[in-house]
Design brief:
This protein has 104 residues and is mainly β. It has one helix and six strands; from the N terminus they run ββββββα. Strands 1, 2, 3, 4, 5 and 6 form a six-stranded antiparallel sheet that branches. The two termini are 17 Å apart. It comes from Burkholderia latens. InterPro entries: DUF2917. This is DUF2917 domain-containing protein.
Length: 104
């Protein structure tokens, strides 16, 4: 199976889902690339170090994270968040194809 180039910069979006199980217990999140946090369920509070105010987010609210940033995230009542980031598709596809050809 051959992979044909499209002539444009292909992107693939990686989405990770998290459930915040303990009310009010903050969890540290370090973003190595540009990412977007989306509240899927419940209410979430975000603290950014060195920013004087916190951010309260409801279902479907978004919060953009800059590369190399850190936030603290906490939720109420089993809140769920998704964190998405863009990645070049051809880099991932190439490494997956190499693994297929090696039999792994």
């Amino acid at each position: 199976m051959a992979v044909e180039p499209t002539g444009k910069e292909d992107q693939m979006r990686e989405i990770r889902l998290f459930q915040l199980e303990e009310d009010g217990t903050p969890t540290r999140w370090d973003a190595d690339t540009r990412q977007t946090l989306v509240v899927r369920r419940g209410m979430v509070w975000v603290t950014v170090p060195d920013v004087l105010r916190d951010f309260w987010l409801r279902e479907n609210d978004r919060f953009d994270l800059a590369p190399h940033s850190t936030i603290w995230v906490s939720g109420i009542g089993g809140s769920e968040i998704a964190i998405a980031e863009e990645r070049p598709a051809r880099v991932q596809t190439g490494s997956r194809l190499r693994m297929l050809f090696r039999g792994r």
